[in-house]
Amino acid sequence: MSQHSTDESPARAAATREATDWWRDAVIYQVYPRSFADSNGDGTGDLEGIRRHLPHLRDLGVDAVWLSPFYASPQADGGYDVADYRAVDPMYGTLLDADAVIRDAHALGLRIIVDLVPNHSSDQHEWFKRAVADGPGSPLRERYHFRPGKGENGELPPNDWESIFGGPAWTRLADGEWYLHLFAPEQPDLNWEHPAVADEFRSILRFWLDMGVDGFRIDVAHGLVKAEGLPDLGGADQLKLLGNDVMPFFDQDGVHEIYRSWRVILDEYDGERVFVAEAWTPTVQRTANYVRPDELHQAFNFQYLGAPWEAAELHQIIDSSLDAMRPVGAPATWVLSNHDVTRHATRYANPPGGTQIRTPGDRELGLRRARAATLLMLALPGSAYIYQGEELGLPDVTDLPDEVRQDPSFFRAQGQDGFRDGCRVPIPWTRTGPSYGFGDGGSWLPQPATWGELSVEAQTGDPDSTLELYRAALATRRAHAGLGAGDSVKWHDEVPAGLLSFERPGFACTVNTTGEAVRIAAPGTVLLSSAPVTVEDGRIDLPADTTVWWETP
Prior knowledge:
Elements lengths: L26 E5 L15 H6 L1 H7 L3 E4 L3 E2 L11 E5 L6 H13 L3 E6 L9 H9 L11 E2 L22 E3 L5 E3 L14 H17 L3 E4 L36 H12 L7 E4 L6 H5 L9 E2 L2 H4 L5 H15 L7 E3 L8 H4 L15 H17 L3 E5 L68 H4 L6 H14 L10 E2 L7 E6 L2 E6 L5 E4 L3 E5 L5 E2 L2 E4 L3 E6 L2
Parallel strand pairs: 1-2, 1-13, 2-5, 5-9, 9-10, 10-11, 12-13
Antiparallel strand pairs: 3-4, 6-8, 7-8, 14-15, 15-16, 16-21, 17-20, 18-21, 19-20
Helix pairs in contact: 5-6, 11-13
C-alpha cells in the first residue's frame, strides 16, 4: 500500500517525489457543491463553503476530493449542462475561489479532481447559440448533431433514439432541423467527429491542469462517439437495454482513441494527475477497455454499486471485477452511493430493487447494512469512493414534495427515475441553527427534522457513530500494510451460507449478510467492526449484517 502524507508543504511537494501510484488505493470523496456548504447564506452551496470544510475531509482520512460541476451553467441538469467550461458559475463563486480550494486542499495533503462533461454542452453554450442563430447549413451546426427530420415534411425525428430522461432524443427547431440530445433538450450532444470539438477539449484539459487540478472525472465517458449513420435502434423502451448491450450511442469503440490522445496531455504534467471514467457498460470486461495502460486510470464499478446485500452475488461481482482489471493493470474501484442513485443506507433498508428506491424502508436495518457494506468496500483491493454525507449514515430523503423537486427527469414521462433530489439534500454540520449548519439562509432542498442528530457535530466523539466508524476505518486502512492497493483476495470458501470471508496480507475480513447471528472461529484479533462484537474462546457470534476486520498472524 502506498502511504500518503497529510502534512505536505509546499502544496505541490508530491510533484517532486518519485511516483507513488497514489490513485491505486486512493479513497476519493465526492462533493456535490450545491449541497455541501453555503458560505453566503443564499441557500446554495458554493466553493468557499467547500474550502472552509476541507479540514473535515482531511480529518476523515480521504486522499482526494472530486467536485461535481461548478462551471457556468443554466443549471438545467444540476450543472451537467455547461455553458462555459473555463468559468465558474456565479452561484458557486469565481475562478479565484476555485484556485483557493485547489491551493488549500493541496496544503492539507488533499488532491482535487474536477468533473469534465464532454458528451454534451448546454444549449446556452456560445457554439450552440450561434449554430441555432445561423440556421441550416451553418458550419457551427457540424459541431453538434443537426439533422433533417423524416416524414413528408420532416416532422419525424431523424431516428428512433430515446432520451435517457424520457421521450425522443431529438428536438426540432423552428427552422425545421432537429438536434440530438441523449439527456435533456438543454443538453445538445457534441459531435466528436468534428476536429474543433477535440481541439476545444484538449484546451479545456490544459486550462484546468494549469490551474493545478489533480485529475478529471469524465461524465458519460461511454458516450461521445455515435455509430456511423446514427442507425435506428429498433423498438421502444430502449432504457431497459442500457447496461445490457452496446448501444449505437454508447460504448462505441471510437471513444478509446479520444482517451489515448487525452492521456498524452495528462502525462505531460507532473504530480501524477489522473482520469476517472463514468462508463456504464454491459460488462466489467468492457469497462476494463477504458483503463488500458495508455488510456484512463480508473473507471467506476457500477456493477458493484448495483449489487444486492447478498453474499453469493457480492462474491461473484468482486471476483469478476478483480479478474477484469488484472489483465490491464488497473485498480478495481468500489462505490456504494453517488449523486445519481438512492443512498445505500436507504437501498439496503428495502428489498432489492435497483438503484432508485422511493420508500424509506427499515431505517435501522438500512444503516446497519450500510455500515457493514462500507467496511467490506474499504477492505477490498483498489480505490474506493465516498459520496458526501454517507460518512454520517444519511438516508435518502424520500418524501420531498413534488413542488420542491428539481431533477429534470422528474418532469419528463417514461425516462430515468426522476428522484435523484433525495440524495442531494444539503448535508448537516451542526445539531441546530439554520439548515443545521449548511448555511445561514436555509437550503435549496428542505432537510428532515432528524438531520441535526445526524450532523457532524452530533456524531463527532461518539464512538458508536457512523462518522467515527468511517474515521477509524480510513485511519486503519491507511496504516495497515495489508490494505489498499492490490489485485486479489484469498477467499475462505468453507463458511456458512450468507457469509463472506477473505484474507489479505496480515488481515482478514468477515461479513455476515444474513439476518441472524452466525457462530464462527475468530481468524485473528479484532481491528474494527461495524457493530459490537465479542470473541470468547477463539469464537465469535458474528451479528446479523455485520462486518469485522481482523489482524491475522
